[in-house]
Amino acid sequence: MKKQQLERLPLRPKRSSRETRIQGIDIVICIILVFFALLIIFPFWHAFVISISSKDAYSRNSFLLWPTELDFTAYKMVFSDMRLWNGYKITLLLLFVGTLYQLFFTVITGYALSRKKWVGKNFVMNMILVTMFFGGGLIPYYYLIQSLGMMNSVLVMIIPGAIDTFNMLLMRNYFASLPAEMEESAKIDGANDIVTFVKIFLPLSLPMLATVGLFFAVGNWNSWYNAMIFISDSSKWPLQMVLKDMISEMSSQMETPTATETFSEGMTMAAIFFTIVPIMCFYPFLQRFFVKGIVVGAIKG
Amino acid sequence: MELVTISRRNNPFRKFGRKALQSKYLIMMILPAVVFYVIFNYLPMYGIVLAFKSFNPIKGVINSPWNGFDNFKEVFKDPNFWPVFGNTLIIGSVKIVIGFLGAVITAILLNELRMRRTKKTIQTIVTFPHFLSWIVISGFVFSLFAYHGAVNSVIEASGGQPVQFLRNKPFFFFLIFATDIWKEAGWGSIIYLATMAGIPQDQYEAADIDGASRLQKIWHITLPGIKSVAILLLIMSVGGVLSAGFDQLLNLTPRALEGKIDIIDTYIYRNYIGEVDPSQVGIGAAIGLFKSVIGFVLVITVDRIAKAFGERGII
Amino acid sequence: MKKAKLLCGACLTALMSVTALTACGGGSNGADKYDKNNRLILNLRNVYFDQWNGEDNYTEILNEMFGVKIKATNYSYSSWDTQVGTAINGDNLTDAIQYNLKAYNFGSSYEKWVGYGLLKPLPDDMSRWPEIQKMLNNISNIDYLKVDGKLYGIPIANDISNPTKDFSNMTYVYRRDWAKQIDEMNKNTAGWTNVYKEGDVYTWEEFNRLLTAFKTNIKTLSGTDKADVLVDEAWGFPSVANFYKNAPHCYTKDSDGKAINAFTAPEYLNGLDAAKELVANKIYSPDQCNWKEEGGDATTNYLGGKAAVLYDNFSFSNYLKLRTNFKNQRKPGSVDALNDGTAFLKIKGPDGKFAIENTENWFSMTMFNHKISDTKLEKILDVINYLLTDEGTRLAIYGQEGYDYTMDSVTGEVTLNEMSWEKNINTGEYAPKTNGAKYLRYMATLGNDTKAYDPYTDLTAYNIFNAWNDEMKAAKEAGDLRIIVEPADISWMSTATKNKRTKANLDAAKGLASDYCYGDINQTKYINDVEGLNGYKDAIDEINAKLGK
C-alpha cells in the first residue's frame, strides 16, 4: 500500500486510451522542443570547440561548429595548475562532509515540522518564514562568524549552511505526504517519535533524501561567496573561487609584479569545462531524483 | 485546598509543560534548527538598526550613533535611486511573467509530446542549465554576442553588418530575459509537468468522446488543472520581485553598460558594499530594509488577494 | 521534566553568551600572539602574495633573525575591494594590510580610515629604520599623505631607485613587424614612403598614416577579418584624447585658475572628437568596452593577434607579462620577432610633444591595524627595513649566502651556486623558486630597483623598457614631453562632496565619453549628462570655494 502511494507520483502520464497516432501537431511540437534543446546545447558545444581549437583557428572565425586544428594546450595549462587541483580538494571536502551535515539537520527539522500539531510548531514555522524576508546584512554576520571563531576556516563554508529553508520545506512536505496510519501503528507499538522517524519514515524517504542531498551537493559545488568574504588563506579556497580569481584578468592600472599568465579565451573555456564536466557527467543519471524531489516537495506543500 | 488544585491544573505553564512533554522527542529534533535560526538568522538581525545609524567600525553596530532617518533621506534624494528602483520593478516583474509563461509553455509542449524517448532526452537537456553558475553563463554570452563574437560572424557571413549587441540597452534587457528563460524554463516546467500528470485521465477521455481538439483539451482541461499550483508559485515569486537577480546582473553586465542598468541589489553592491567606505554602510542597510519591507508587504497582500478569490495561500 | 528545564536553561545561557560576543563587534586580529617557539606572530596580507603561502626556508631565516613567525595571506585580485571592505567594517584588519591610495580620489578610503582611527601611524622617530626612512624621503608628495603630521603606513614605491620619475608607463606597444610588412608589400608601389619609422617615434601625421595603413592591411596581416587596429584597456579609453586633454581625472583649471569640469573642457572635447573619428573609421576597435573585465578585453585581443596597437600600463612587470604571454600565445620564433611584436610606440601629439599621464611613484600602501602593539609594529618595520638593506635585498633576490650564492668579499661580485639554482639548458632560464623574502619586500617596493641584477629578469625586455624610459626622460628634459597632471592643490584637496562622489563620477563620465565616441549620444547630450552627474557640480563649487575663486 505504501509502495503504491509512491508509485502514483511519477512524471510520465500512464499510457491511456488517448490517441497514440502521431499527428501533424506532434511534429510541430517536436520541432519546437528540439529547437529549444539545441539552443541550450549550442553554447556548451561552442565553448567546448573553442577550448580545443587552436587560437589561430578561433581568431580567424569565432563561429566554430567543428573543432579545427585541434589544440589541447589550454587543457594542459589548466590541468597543470596546482591551484585548481587544490580547489578541487576543498570542493570535494565540502561536497561530502558539507552535504551530509546539511542533510542531517535539514531532514530532522523537516520531519519535526511535518508532524501533527505540537506545542510551539506554529511559532517555529513563522520564525523560519520571517527569515526568508529579513536579514541583518553582512556586517553583523561578519561579527558573528568572527566570534564563532570560524574566520579563515573551512568550517565557515559548512556550518552556516546547516539548514536551507527551501530544501527543508521540500522535506517537510514530503514527510507530510506519507500516510499517517504508519505513524499511528508505530505509536501503538510504543515507539517514540525518534524511533518512528528512523525505523519507518527514513527508509521510505530514500529517494527524497537523494534529491535534497543532490541539491545540497550542487550548491556546495558552486559555492564561493563565503570563501571570498571569510577565508583569507587562498589554499582553502574552493574550486569556484579559485576559478573566478584566475579568470578575472588584471585590467586595472595597477602594476602586478607577480601575476604571470593571462587567460586566453581558450583557457577560460577550458577552465569552465573543468568545473562543469563533473555535473554534466552525473546529471543525466541523477535527473530523475531531482525531478521526483521537486515534484513531491512543492506540490503537496 | 481545592482552590489550589484548580489553580495548579489551570496554570498555563504547567499546561504548556505537559503538552511539551508529550512531544518532547519532536522538540528535541527541532531544537538544533531553532538554535541554528537564532544564531545565524536572528542574532545578526540587530544589524537592521544600521539603517538608522551612522556606522563607525571602531564602535561597532551597537555603539554607533543614531542618526534617525538621515540614511533614508539620503537614499530618496539620490537622483540615481529612483531609476534603479524602476529598473528593479520592471526587470523583476517581467521576469516573473516570462518565467511563468516559459515554464508553463515548456511543460505543455513536453506533456503533449508523445515520443517517450525524445521527451526524456529533451527534458534532461532543458533542465540542466539550472545548475550552472552565472559566471559560466556570462562566459558563454560574451563569446557569442561580442562584436567579434560568433553571432556577428554569422551575420557577416550572410552579408549583414555586425551589430554592437553589448553596448545596446534594449538588447541587454532582452538578454536578461532570454538568459533567464534559457536557464530556468526547463527547470520550472518540472512542477507543472507533474501536476499535469496528476490530472485524471477520464477528463481527457470524456473530451475525446465529445470530439475536442488538442488545443481545446489544453485550454479546458490542462490549464485549469495546473491553475492552483500556478497561483501558489506566483504568490511565492511576487515576494522576490525586488530581488530581480543580483548574481545574473552582476555577471552579465558588459563593461559598456556598467552602472547604467542597475537593480537595487547591484546598486547597493556597487555603491555601498563593494566600496571600502564605512560611512556608506548605513545607507546600504537602509536600502536593504526598504526592500525587505516592500517584499514582505507584497507577499502578504498577494496572499490575501489569492485567499479572497478562494485559492490556497501560503501563509 | 527537570532535564528539559536544564536543557532549556543551558540553551538560553549559550545563546545569550553568543549574543554578548557578537554584539560588541571588533575582531580579534591585532592582539599579540606567540607561536610555540615563543615567537611573535605577524599576520600580513597583500595582493602581491598570490603565489606564496607564507612558508619557506627564506621566510624561516627572517623568522629566526627577528624572533617572529610570519603568516602571509593574499587578497583575491577579483574581490580585493570586498575583502578589504568587510575587514574594515568589521574592524578586523590583519596586522598589516595593503590597499589602493588612489591619488585622484585621495579622500575616499585612507583618510577616512585614519579619521575613524582604524590605522596605526608610523612612529615619529624612524631612526631605527634608516632604510625605510630613506625610501620615504624619495616618495613623491609624501606630505600630502600625512594626516596631522603622521604617516599611517608605507606607500609602496614603484621604483625606489628612480624617485624623480613623474610620468606613468601608460603608453602604446605595437606590432612593428606588421608595420615593416606593410612597407615590404608596398615597396614596388610608385611614390610609396615607408610607414614604419626607425626608432618607433611618430609624429601625429605619421601616426595617423600608420593607423590608416594598418586599417587597409589588417586582414592580410592578421589573417582574420576580426582584427582591429587600435585597442585600449577599458580604463584608458579613449587614450587618443591624451594628446589633447590637460587633465587626467575629473577636475582641471581654466585660464583664471578656477576649477572646471575636465570632461567638458574644450581640449578634452577635441580629444573626444579625434577618438570619435577613429571609431567611425573602425580604427578603434568596435569591440572596445563590450566585454566584462574577464577575458575578451584589449590585451587578450592583442595577444590573440587581433590588434595592431595596444594601450595599457606598461610598467616593467606588466610589459614583461605581455611579452611572456605573446611568446606563449603567438609563438614568434625568435627574440627579434618577439621584440618586433611588442615594440614601444612613441607618438608625438598634434602639438609636437609626447603626452603621458602623470603618476606618483606609489600606487598602494601597506597599512597597520590600530590594535597592534608598538612591539609588533616595530617587528614588522624591522623585517621590512632589513629587506631594504643590501644584505636583505640579496636574501630576497639570490637567497641564502653560502648556499644559494657566494659573494666575493672584495669586489662584491655575486656567483650563483648552480647546485641550488636549476637552470633550463635550452632557454637559459632559471627554474622558479619560491622566496618569501622577495614577496615580503613587495610590502615596501615593487622590486623594480632590483630588476637589473635579478636572475629571473629577462634582460632583453629590461633593456627595451629602460630605453623607452630614458628616451621619455630625455624628452622631458628637452621640453618635448607633456605630462598630463591634475593641479596639486585640487588633487590633494579634501572636501565632502569631492571625496564622496569623485570616483563614481569619474567612472560615469568615462562611460559617457565612451558613449559619445561610439555615437550613442551627441555632444550636447554628452555635456549635459556629464555636468548633471550627481554631485559633480557641487564638488567643483566646493573646490572653488576653498581655492577662493
Give the key terms.
heterotrimer; A: 301 residues; mainly alpha; MetI-like fold; 2 domains; 14 helices; disordered N terminus; C: 549 residues; alpha/beta; D-Maltodextrin-Binding Protein, domain 2; five-stranded mixed β-sheet; three-stranded antiparallel β-sheet; 13% strand
Question: Would you write up a description of this structure?
Answer:
The complex is a heterotrimer of chains A (301), B (315) and C (549). Chain A is an all-alpha fold and 301 residues long. Chain A folds into two domains: 24-71, no CATH class; 82-252 and 259-299, MetI-like (MetI-like fold, Orthogonal Bundle), CATH 1.10.3720.10. Chain A has 14 helices and no strands. Chain B starts with a helix and ends in a 7-residue tail after the last helix. Chain B is mainly alpha-helical and 315 residues long. Chain B has a single domain, classed as MetI-like fold. The mean pLDDT of chain B is 85. Chain B has helices spanning 2-10, 12-22, 24-42, 60-63, 70-77, 81-112, 116-127, 134-145, 150-157, 169-197, 201-209, 214-238, 246-252, 264-273, 281-308. Helices cover 71% and strands 0% of the residues of chain B. Chain C has two domains: 40-163 and 362-453, 3-Layer(aba) Sandwich (D-Maltodextrin-Binding Protein, domain 2), CATH 3.40.190; 168-238 and 284-357 and 460-491, no CATH class. Chain C contains 19 helices and 16 strands. Chain C has helices at 2-24, 57-66, 80-89, 110-116, 130-137, 176-185, 204-222, 266-280, 298-303, 316-330, 335-341, 374-388, 390-397, 436-441, 459-477, 488-491, 496-517, 523-531, 536-547, and strands at 40-46, 68-74, 96-100, 154-157, 170-174, 201-202, 228-232, 251-253, 259-261, 307-313, 343-347, 354-357, 362-368, 405-407, 414-416, 481-484. In chain C, the strands form six sheets. Chain C has a five-stranded mixed sheet with strand order 6-11-5-10-7, sandwiched between helices. In chain C, strands 3-13-4 form a three-stranded antiparallel sheet. In chain C, helix 12 packs across helix 13 (390-397).
